[in-house]
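2 proteins. here.
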Amino acid sequence: MNVLKKISLALFLAVVATVAHAAVSFTAQAPRQVVEGNKFNITFVLQNAEGQGFTAPELSWARKLYGPAMSTSYSSTWINGKSSSSSSVEYNMIYKAEKPGKYTVGPASITVNGTRMTTRPITIEVISGGKAAADERREEQERRSQVQFDDPLTQDASKGVGAKDLFVRIEMSKPRVYEQQAVVCTIKLYTRYQISQFMVTKQPSFDGFLIEEINQQPSLNNDEVLNGQHYKVAVLNRCILYPQQSGKLTITSGTYDINVVQYENYRTPFGTLSQPVERKMQVESNQSTVNITPLPEPRPATFTGAVGKFSVKTALNNSDLKTFKASVYSYIIEGTGNIKYIKAPSVSFPKEFDVYDPKNNVKTSPSSGDVSGTVNIDYTFIPQYAGDFSIPASVFTYFNPETGKYEDVNIPATDLKVAKGAGSPSNHYRMQNMDIRNIKTGDFNLSKSQSFMVGGAAYWLWYILPLMALAGLMVYYRKQLKMRADVGLMRTKRANKVAQRRLKRARSFVKAGDRSAFYAELLTAMWGYLSDKLGIPVSELNKENIAANLESYGVDEQLRGTTLAMLDKCEFAQYAPELAGDDMAKVMDEAAAIIGDLENVKPSKKQKS
């Protein structure tokens, strides 16, 4: 029984809190007095709810001219760190007062969440006017002169289609935003005519923006009042824009080919007959501008471009860490804003870890005014030594447009305990630490002596030997010139020589069937060869440098891709050989062919200079 009481109390408090923030109401609004023969509006407003089955009251003393026309609105506020929102649905009715007197408008009704709600009765007084008949005739003429979507008699083909009868309009949700802050762009078609065909001939351009499309199925199923006129409206396109620069950015006009349906009206003894005809038109939308405010300066060093509202947490996929075993450290960012364009933060791993480039996994969904979701940034690392380590605490900084300030999320330190595992340091780690050797210390057994060379045989040899060496070099040079005339032969000899020398040891592991040692030796050979070939120190070798230098050397795109793919294959197989199923002999031949092809490449003029 106590449990039931607690549940009932919790439900009651939840309902009270909901009502306090967004009270549901259904009310009627109308003028107190109306002149006989004049038009007037009655508006029924449903606040903070969605309803079904709206029923308007019957008025015996007035004639209904239009309605119900439904429109919706939504608003939100942010005060002292707390947000609140409200919505309303309006049902607008237009009547014409026909009888003087004092009348009561009965209640309208609507169903909300299974409950039937009604409005309170209201009183309207209709005052007699001597000009009522004349006003009625004048208003009828005005109504006939204006195009009505549901009235073919007003859509006569003898009249042109006016600029106020059919147009495309670009609307921006906000006139001013910060850089990278979302702004919603909506392109709408407004018409008083039926449309038989619609085609986009020129899309508006969004220069200076990144675009997030929102799926939209255009249809003329919305009613909207603009500048006091009623239109049928279709939403052609809706997208979320992220400005990439400050200043005044303009959305340029689009162009559309539209077939409009008009009517040829004929008077007959039996009434007026209407025959539909089509008119082809080209419509150009308006331009729309947004003022982009630059992000405040100075920008924090920890700011990586995130604009919106975010939370951050970290996670390890494996708490049982061992040396030479791959693990993943995940950086998880959740929130709303330009989440798809956030750069991966820099994480300081211990120098005893072999760390690979981060990989992003983004899951987002566009909402009404922004994009929400989660981005997982995974850092793969392999501990090379056992012991206690730590990934230090850090700060993730984002800019919050609601407050206009940079806000920090503190990331606590992550303690790591690494146990001894089977294996050996990865080749990637060894290559990073092989460029500088330790300084040799100890006794070198040096001796100090004095002697005179002038006049001795050694003295004259210093003159004769260089002359003999010069003559020998000239003979050798002439011989080399003759051999180098055959360029194909020289390239083939050099390619075979380099391939055999660098791959000889790796070939021995193929015969022994040692897959781990084979890929380690093959990767060392590839890294070492590229270091010598391109003149890059081993400590500075990475795939970006290799790709750039191969391109400047004159290597075509296909061979560059094959070379980098071989490095990826060897790296993956080196620390996970059990997952590499390729035949080692075939991989060996592919590596030898790549080295041979690289040797056959003629250096570009830029590389020679």
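next one coming up
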Amino acid sequence: MSTRARDAAVSLKTLSAAGIVRPYGPRTLVGIVGALRKWGTTPAGGFKSLALRMPDGVAIIDERGQVTFGELHRRTNALANALAARGVREGDGVAVMCRNHRGFIEASIAINKVGADVLYLNTAFAGPQLKDVVAREKPRVVVYDEEFEGLLEGVEIEHRVIGWTDGDPGPDSVEELIRTASSFEEPTPPTRTPRTIILTSGTTGTPKGAPRPQAGIPAAVALLSRMPLKAGWTCHIAAPLFHTWGFAHYQAAMLLGTTMVLTRKFEPENALRLLAEHDCDSFVVIPVMLQRILALPDETLDKYPLPSLQAVASSGSALPGDLPEQWMDRFGDNLYSIYGSTEVAWASIATPQDLREAPGTAGGIPHATVVKILDADGKELPVGESGRIFVGNDLQFEGYTGGGHKEIIDGLMSTGDVGRFDSEGRLYVEGRDDEMIVSGGENVFPKEVEDCISTLDGVADVAAVGVDDDDYGKRLRAFVVFADGAEVSEEDIRNHVKSNLARYKVPRDIVVLEELPRNATGKVLKRELAQMDTP
């Protein structure tokens, strides 16, 4: 069997198992084919096909109630027509600075229907970051939550539309634009495929714009090949929608007909309440959210057994220490950890079995994805040897909007991380290639030390950075957050590392903090830690 035929067979089997490929009546089938021919596999086409297949199915549940797929199609028609009336045209840029709610989804689809490019802004931006990004990307319109009004003062943008307000919606709000524009007049499809620009995390500087290709069938097959998401599920997307991982599940929803449960801010017990109240089948998170949930008192956790929950999809950063085991021991073997980046999307997926059998692994490689470990000269390394991680798939970004690109070797793109494969084909990510330090002539990755410290009782959170050392050249400085009421000494931490790792990996300094600085996607801001005035 040829490679193409084998891929087609795997795709059909995977999509059928997920419930995406199934029989439809002739009228519905004609409508779906027409929608996809007209709009392609963009959100405009995907969500219109859902409006034809299941108009009364619930698309969104948020703090304002429910929106069906039929309503979503009509509302986004109206919003697209209103944006066009304000002068938005194909190729223009429209920025979205919204939390997780219907306004984010509706703005995204409407922008797509107009043919404009959507730029997702981080809701945790500081004023200078926001101004720098907007000046570089030059969007004509911004759709934003009213709470960010102050941040947008002095930012030069032609039109402003409020995506969410707790007060009465004014004339420049998504709700009012939808109410006053035609919802039954479908916009004319654009002649170009609009771009989606997601910003990098910005943990080491000003965030870069990374245009993402539209996620088609191959991308869905890759994800579903190692994660058993099903059509018609209800999913609480707690990860920020502007982040690659939250955005991926918004895109998956248009294929699976997923009911998206959204809330503007994450709160640990409220997340459990939403999962239970809506009998959610899946839960999309970043690791720090799981940490905060597991930090709740046992009596609180016991109130939410979550028998319907079948897949907890975590990405954005590595799962620390024994967190996977803690989660699965309480809520069942439903945890999936996804490794990737804004530039390459997902590269590997660890299943519950992987996380049980090989703690610390980033998992196996999805269908139609290539991952290789290369040395400094670009040559592939054998199993067990550490090197730079390079990935090939259908989701690689096109290059940063401000110029520049990730390194590419033989069609494979660098993730910026160092890792290795084991004999079972599982990937291990050892750390960022720019975070590695050389201590006494030995390579040390902060992640390995962080994982070790995080397993010590009483430690709630930890991060480590390299600092200069007169004897070793470089040593690690560990920043530790203790659990409430925990009694842990610096000597306890050093002895724990010394008992589990080589002596040169023992941190030189240990700094106790109330919390680690993180961005909105849960990544620790290590540049802030490195700049702290500490002993």
